[in-house]
Amino acid sequence: MNTSQKINLRTTLLLLLIVLAACCRLLPQMPNFSPLAAIGLFGAAYFKKIWQICLIPIAATWLSDLLINNVVYAEYFTSFVWFYPGFYWQYGSYLLISLVGMLMLKKVTVTRVTGASLMATALFFLITNFAVWLGGAYPQNFAGLITCYVAGIPFLKGTLLGNLVYSGILFGTFAWAQRRYKYVLDGHS
Question: Which ranges does the record mark as transmembrane (predicted)?
């Protein structure tokens, strides 16, 4: 098998794992238990081109959002939803998580993936709850901001567990495949 075929097979496996993880959003699960930050970290660790690192996780988020908003939760919307209000906060947090993943996951180890998952949890929590506060759901002062963050704590558990579980599945599956099919998957996307 030549190098080009190895790279294409490796990239195909990476994309397949990302698509499967994104489809898991359709499964019933606890609030905020999501594969999206893990997808960003996974892409940052294994894709080599910045456009892949940034675009693929955002595309997975957007495509799964289209399905969720227009099929699963279609009854809550009056028309087709391309983007929901405030989407840019969530998407921005995943983009930032991917960029942090580039820095933290130059070498993939269990410790680094765990650390990146914890960092992703903190970033998502801080950014999205700040957006809720900024949107006027709480008084626009420091006490209102703190109240907003405190109100978000129950959702933090789902975010943390989702990041850890899906990172474990994505990174673990790919590591297993690399060991099992070493001669086929060696290459760089």
Answer: 86-105, 117-138, 158-177
The residues, ordered by sequence, that sit 6+ positions from 158 with a Cβ below 8 Å of its Cβ are 29, 30, 31, 32, 33, 34
Question: What's the rounded Cα separation, in Å, for the pair 141 and 145?
Answer: 6
Angle between helices 110-132 and 142-180 (to 10 degrees): 150
pLDDT of residue 104: 97
Find the mean pLDDT for residues 53-60: 90
Task: Name the CATH topology of 3-185.
Answer: Arp2/3 complex 21 kDa subunit ARPC3 (1.10.1760)
The residue among 54, 71, 61 whose CA lies nearest residue 128 is 61
Q: Write down the residue that tokens 């087709």 correspond to.
A: 80
Return the sign of the alpha-carbon dihedral for residues 126, 32, 95, 81: negative
Taking only the tens place, the pLDDT of each residue in 106-131 is 999 999 999 999 999 999 999 999 99
Q: pLDDT over 70 for what percent of the chain?
A: 93
pLDDT for position 182: 73
